[in-house]
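Hi support team,

I'm opening this ticket because the web form for multi-chain structure prediction keeps timing out on my end. I have pasted the exact lines I submitted so you can reproduce it. The total is 715 residues across two entries, so I didn't expect it to be a heavy job. Is there a limit I'm missing, or should I split the entries? Thanks in advance, R.K.
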Amino acid sequence: MLRATVSKPDAAEGDILGDEAYIQLITPEGERVENPAFDPAVADIDKSKLADLYEDMVVIRRIDTEATALQRQGQLALWPPLLGQEASQIGSVRALRDDDYAVPSYRENGVAFIRGVSAEDLMRTWKGYAHGSWDPQLHNLAIPNVIIGAQTLHAVGYAMGIQRDGAKSASLAYFGDGATSQGDVNEALVFSAAYQAPVVFFCQNNHWAISEPVRLQAKRQIADRSPGFGVPSLRVDGNDVLAVLAATRVALERAYSGGGPTFIEAVTYRMGPHTTSDDPTKYRTSDEVAEWKTKDPITRVEKHLEKLGAFDEKLQSRVKAKADAVAAELRSKCIGMPKPGPLSMFENVQVEDNPVLERQRAQYAAYLEMFEGEE
Amino acid sequence: MATATKTGQLTLAKSITEALRRSLKDDEKVLLLGEDIGKLGGVFRVTDGLIAEFGPERVIDTPLAESGVVGVAIGLAMRGYRPVVEIQFDGFIYPAFDQIVAQIAKLHYRSRGTVRLPITIRVPFGGGIGSVEHHSESPEAYFAHTAGLRVVSASNPQDAYDLLRQSIASDDPVLFFEPKRRYWSKGEVNLDPTESLDFSKARVVSPGTDVTMVAYGSLMTTAKEAVEAAEDDGVSIELIDLRSLSPLDLDTVEASVRKTGRLVITHEASEEGGIGAEIAASITERCFNWLEAAPARVTGFNIPYPPAVYEEYFLPDMDRLMDAVDRVLGKHNSRSAWEN
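Hello R.K., no limit was hit. The queue was backed up. Here is the completed structure from your submission:
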């Protein structure tokens, strides 16, 4: 199951959009596929717990829809949609324990919601009121990183800290297919292997780095890369929440028990634009998008729950009520957020006093005072 | 006994070793990371013996990737550690530039004050050792230009000890520039000073009345030679060791220039956009009515750090400093032809 050896070129080479050879536990048609290696990792996921995962995915899709609307209405400056990646985000974040530490890129807003980040904190950054919003120590979740791949090193360093504390927890780095080209991601793999750090590299291969297809980043499957660093990898259907949960749990268990780092390639698809500023019709076909729509992460769980007789009115109304409530909260907190005053931009540059900065602030305050009383 | 804290004569390099040793001893969260810092003790032997004393979990030899070293230091700091990173040579810091200026410098601000990164990055800097390229650079202005970083440089063994201990104890990230060609210069070092000047403050090294001279790092030695030479000419120079390059202690420089009316600034780094430019502009803004002459800069030229054969021409020396002193005093100097 773990790719610990160097892979050989095969017919699939050059066609990395091909999705064969990955872990899948629920097919797009809602069929449960038996997998002796990974089934034990999700043996506790009964109908009720699967319904909870379903609820999570519906709620974060609703957050995404609401935030996209808020951006269109001028309430947010920008939003990076997660549409299509719900299973990757929920399956991975639900595998984490509270004492594990997640280090996101900028698209993991579903992850942030599950880690307990408030609606206000979720919106503040995208409203343009802050660069990062929440206190990482409160959620064991770092703030988003826009520099592609830079955060993977932070996750490795954090894991080295866990080792030194003698703790049985792990860190998990989120990044995308584009990030795998970055030096930092490759250095992070080197460091994680060198120290056998308890870290999980969670790569959401959503097939597009803005306009660049994954085949520009990688001529082989991304999961084939990390074994060369001495980091075993898993390739998983990133639109299958159960498979992602299983794979992430397996990787975390390895980390907890001193097994070192693991790389997960979650094969998913960015159904929306890169951000609300992007126009994906310029670089990809509607056929491609339509094909991925048939692999939707939420629909397949609906179908599966239906087969189990668990997709009933009660569940549907419960999930709808939750999603409605979260969306309403998001909207009201976003619209009602007080705008910070100009002088607050000088806060938190450094911990200790900086007389040069303080003088600049005081001089700007004096400048602003000249306009007081004016209309 | 107080005498136990006196070490007698220590080289500047050894004073840094002692600062690291004391910091490791006093705070179990302090870790050292860098290339070849373990068994070898670093290429300048600054970490010599520390891995034997504190073990490989705290004195960590890293893979050869500067961005990686600094990046994992950030993660360790997020976990509550206090990493001290050694960049082997000044010219090797650039692969880590993003992690320093886009990550370390901004995280406190980006997290609205919730994240603190008490990371010290030690950088042997400057030329004068006849080395190959990328081993003699002075990249401090890049970092002084970046909000969120403290930039410090020591010029003597006692300051190296005090400033490094304060840098490691600080909850802010600090770039600590070590004057590599003075690593072997000796001085008395008190390892338990009852009070030491705050690491954000400049020091007036020798008082004077005619000209203010501002230097830091290796060039403090050169500047002292200039002070003595000027004294023989009957010119009284007030010499200031900046110590902190960000924030600049402009109040100390301002007070001096209000007294002398003349300012000479020197650094090895090239002139354009350098620390000297910042001081000249700030002091001109603050002291325009007290200045008797335009501030003068004596710096490296706006060329890549040249091959070793040119070092004696590239690096500011006492004669170039004296020429600038003549310039601010309105005496005949090398630029007299441009002054009309």
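A quick check on our side: Chain B has two domains: 12-190, 203-331. Let us know if the file doesn't open in your viewer.
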